[in-house]
Every structure is written in structure tokens, then in C-alpha cells.
Amino acid sequence: MHKNIVPSISGRTRLACLLGHPVAHSMSPAMHNLAAQICHEDLAYLAFDTDADHLPLLLDALKEMNFLGANLTMPLKTAVIPCLDELSLASRLCHSVNTIVNDGGRLIGHSTDGIGYLDSLRDVGFDITGKTMTLLGAGGAARSILVQAALDGIQEIRVFKRRNQTFETSRSFLTQVERETGTPIRLLDIADSNALARSIADSQLLTNATSVGMAEDPRSLVDADLMHPGLFVSDIIYHPLTTPLLARARGRGLAHANGLYMLLFQGAASFKLWTGRDMPVEQIRSLFTEAT
Q1: Residue 292 has pLDDT above 70, yes or no
Q2: Which of 117, 143, 144, 199 has its CA 20 to 30 A from that of 259?
């Protein structure tokens, strides 16, 4: 039923879209058009391949055509910020926008990446409230995750990254998030194996938000013997579905999750911002399993 999703178009149909480069591979049009069809929403979702130079002109056009809003993917999540009228707290803190809502001609930026990650964990029965997280990486995805986790009630976050030229920049970012959310956040060198071991031992959630473990880099940053009973292991990677990190967690009998449904739930959060309705995620989920 999902192979050829053709939205019903009327004279009242509202539009939403994906902006970025590349976008041809994206599952967002299939996801949102199917959701609109199931929910009987007069909505059609398109994808436009564009770059930062053309973004202001495109956003003006979206306002003129009364679009509901847009999603943004790389390389536009930060470049779009000067074009917007308002930012949500999460998008301001992580300095990233992946969803725009057109509120009567005012463009409001949101970040649903972190929401998608946390909702994907809740979907499998893990709630971060009151927990301690060891987070590997401090890039864009990691920032969105830690900001939303701090806003949603996590107890403490320990961030491990390479001590390179961006280390102090990351420290400044984490200090700001800690100040605005009240959540203790520490930055540590990922090369410090003793600090990593101590952090994992005290954590209930271990999250890999680096590219290590992808098909092109089949390694794990954490040895299996550091994974203790009661630790939930998460990887934002979904190609492959079982990364070396998750394979080690499975071998230890630990609960674990990959990044596949982070995409689904961040899309669900965008859909609700535009329509006020919950995306029927159980009916949409098969799109993701069919694509793997």
C-alpha cells in the first residue's frame, strides 16, 4: 500500500517541503504524504534540492505561497537561522533548525532531532528522566540530543570527544546549555579510557552520536567489558542497523536501539507542529523497515 503514495490535491491543499542537498534519497515525502493520507489532512509534501545561497529567496516564496512549513537537512540547519523570525528554545540552544513553521508569515524555527531521538527511546521503553548519559561525540546530532535531554529532565550528561581544535568551542557550548537548563554537563577527552570507563559505570544510558560504527568505519569506541547490566546502549547510526557497538551490547544481553526510528519520530514531531495532529507512527513504521 505504500509503494506509490499520491496525495489528494484540492484547491485548499497546503504544502510542506524538505529543503537541502541532496534530498532525492529522503524518506520524508513518503512519510508525510502517507501520514496526511491516513489522517485525511489536505496536505502535500515535496522535496527541493537547494543550497544556502538560494535559501532566502526560497523562504520568501514559501511565505508567499502560504506553505505550512518546511524541514531542513544538511547543509542548511544552521544557515537558515538568520532568515527566521523566531527560534524555539531547543533550536536556539543547539544552534540548529530542522523544522520551520509558517505562522501567518512569521517563520519560526524548531529542532525536532533531539525529540525524535528521545521519543525513539521511549518507544522501546526507556525514559531518560533522572538518568545519567554518557554521550560520544559533540557534533550537530549530539548537540540536538543533549539539548533536548537536558530540557526533558535527564540528571547528568558526560560528553566525550576528541581533544582537537573544536574542544574548547564545545566546552563553551556545553557551559551555555548547562547554565540555561540547570543540567550538569561535563566535557571529557574520548582518548581518556579511564574517564570513559568510570563514566559508563555510573551511567544508565550510553549513546554513540559519532560516525564510528558506520559501514565505512566498522569500529566500536567502547569495549564490551565496560557495558554493565542495566545499561541501555543507543547508536544514532542506522546503516548498518546493528553497529559493532550494538553487537557488543546484544552480546552482553543489554537493551539497545539504533537510529532508524529517530528519523520517524523527528518527522512525527514536525507533522504535529504543522497540523496539530499526532502522526500515526505505527502505520508509518513499515516505510522504514521496507527501506532497510
Answers
A1: no
A2: 199
pLDDT digits (tens, 9 = 90+) for 39-80: 999 999 999 999 999 999 999 999 999 999 999 998 999 999
Residue 275: all three cell numbers together: 497540523
Give 99-104 contacts, CB < 8 A, sequence gap 24+: 99/69, 99/70, 99/71, 99/72, 99/269, 99/270, 99/273, 100/59, 100/62, 100/69, 100/70, 100/71, 100/72, 101/68, 101/69, 101/273, 101/274, 102/62, 102/63, 102/66, 102/67, 102/68, 102/69
Sign of CA dihedral 199, 204, 206, 207: negative
Would the pTM of this model clear 0.90, i.e. be above it?
yes
Which cell numbers hold the place of 10? 484540492
* CA 236 to each of CA 58, 108, 275, 276: distance values in angstroms, whole numbers, following the listed order: 30, 26, 27, 27
Task: Give the pLDDT confidence of 247-270 residue by residue, as tens digits.
Answer: 999 999 999 999 999 999 999 999
Choose among 146, 62, 83, 153: nearest CA to 111: 146
Distance in angstroms (rounded) separating the CA atoms of residues 158 and 222 = 15
Catalytic-labelled residue, pool 77, 131, 161, 272: 77
- pLDDT value of residue 69: 98
